[in-house]
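[job 4417] fold queue: 2 targets
>>> target A
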Amino acid sequence: MKRFLLILLVIFSCSSQVRENTPPKLIRASSPSQPSWVLKKKQSTDHYYFVGIGKKNKNLQEARKSAIEDGVSRLLEFIGFRATTKFQSKKEYNDDSLKEEIIQTIEGKASASVITEVEDLYYEEYTDGYVFYTLIKSPVKWVEQERKRLREKVNKEKEEATRLLGEAKTLFENGEIVKALDNTISAFEISERAEENSDLYAESKDLMIQILSSLRIELNNKANFFYKEGGSDEIEIYVKTTKNFKAVKGLLLDFDCSDKEALVVAKKGLQTDEKGVAIFNVEKSGANNLELGFSFSLKRFDIVKKLDEDFYNDLKKYNNIVKLKVNLKLNDRLKAVSSALVLIDVENEQNKYSPKFQEEIGAKFASRGFQVQTVDISKVLKSKDSEESLRDKIINFLAKEYKNVKNLILIYRNHNYLGEIGKDIKFNEYDLGDSQIKIYEIQTSISVIDIATKETLKGYKFSLKGQGLNKNQAIENAEKRFFEKLDEFFN
């Protein structure tokens, strides 16, 4: 039984293979015999003839359309048009005879339409589909006029593309990158229209790559943070060309951001200025870290994408090669910005500078993440200056001598010895007699000031008292409490 089944399987396999290898058979044809024009080109003094052959198709209408398109392509190639054309066909029936009017829109060839005629049609139906043939004719006079017109047009285009490329090379040598790109793209577009100008087309592509590969996109400043309060460090993008290391002005830039919901703005527009610089800022983001990428904009190359998508994809690769990546971290603005810390103690209405204690407070700020440096202001400090007057003196001093510093953290401490409880400080409800407990008060104000605008960004005040068996002990206890209260500022 097993042997019988095996024999049947072998027979079935062989019969299937025979069916698969069987050549397609002719079922019928549209006429009893194949027309002579299918194999032998028809000729006349008035018309040029072209035979179109459609790809085998199981749909008769699709096979016919393919044959007509092939015939028109052969006509256009004979005239000189590139075969990158689109066809529209309209059918008219008149006394059972089929007429085809083919309207050809010739891309990039100015206005020219082809009105030709399908003189004859023939098809064969096979077991695997239809093969369609069509005989197309076009007047000799019209064809020759078009061939002459195209020769003249191609020559003019060659002259124009050559001129544009020559200017582009000179501009490139002089570092005029944007103008060089514009000329090169124009030459690319013009030379693409005719196969005869393929050498200029290739030259345009090569020059475009040279120009773009010479670009260097750099970060022109330190940009590290974007802030909880909104905004970020300025992102100053600088573009130059390695051709002569000049700044590239007028280049349209583009950017992407790891946070798609982030709002990134260009302060003065997306084009680089006279110095090759464009400035960006992150207005808001919900992320903790951001990666931004800056490169040349591909919008300038829309025509390239339309004409040659493969080459456009090459340009996209160069776009990624020269792209600059910038990473920013979320931070508190007051902490991230470089600040100068100044401490002024006021005792008995006299301004005093305490460098040692100022250093201790500076260390406290630094431990909380502030970019802070303590500043010696003894040169500008006057003991009798008012708080407002001294504030302006310090800001002007920092603006002149510490140009890297953006903010001023100004701490004023007013010291007051209140005296002894029961003697200098009395309570109506209690008679404490000679308590010998001394009280010392420190009233503190902390202001964070933008040095450029003199605007107060944050202010905080607190008052504390220290007590002891003597004045020095009271002062010491007050100073200890000072650091505890200072923590409230950070929170």
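>>> target B
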Amino acid sequence: MKPTVKDLINVGIFTVLYMVIVVICGQLGALLPITQVLGPLYIPLLAGIVFMLFLTRVRHFGLVTIMGLLVGLVVLATGQSYWVLILAVVFASLGDFIMSLGRYKKWLTLVIGYVCFSFLLLGTVVPLFFLRDSYLGRLSERKDDAWMSGIVAMTPWWMFLVMIAMIMVGASLGAFLGRAMLRKHFEKAGIA
């Protein structure tokens, strides 16, 4: 089934709302090294509210993928690494596929799908761990020495694994928070 004009309008509106939350959280998180490191936990948690509302309007495969691609393109346009777009292609499509298995109605597939979708956010930290020297060099042009020392101390190689776990926890909690805040919409859409 092809997306309708209404579907594409919904994707556009919810992508903008999702990006507003991600950008505000990302900018606030960049103020301190600790809030930067905790971003993979609280960003999908807060963005889950908008994403779950978006899912009440999704009925067929492709819309979540389109949203992920748009998010990846917008984040790439802000100067982030190309890894965001690569991960958006992979994980938004995977999340969309998982949600489609439950016909966008089964709660477990929605939660797992949102967790997968949220992994696209890792694209912003991939350079910190895998292209470390060049990334830290560019970052040092905008941040002072104390901030740089803090981020280096808080991001040993194994912190990447912790960030993966933080996304899983944050996105799972974000799905439940979104459902709790939007229960009326979920009931109307018939989502269990």
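[job 4417] complete. Note on B: The longest helix spans residues 5-29.
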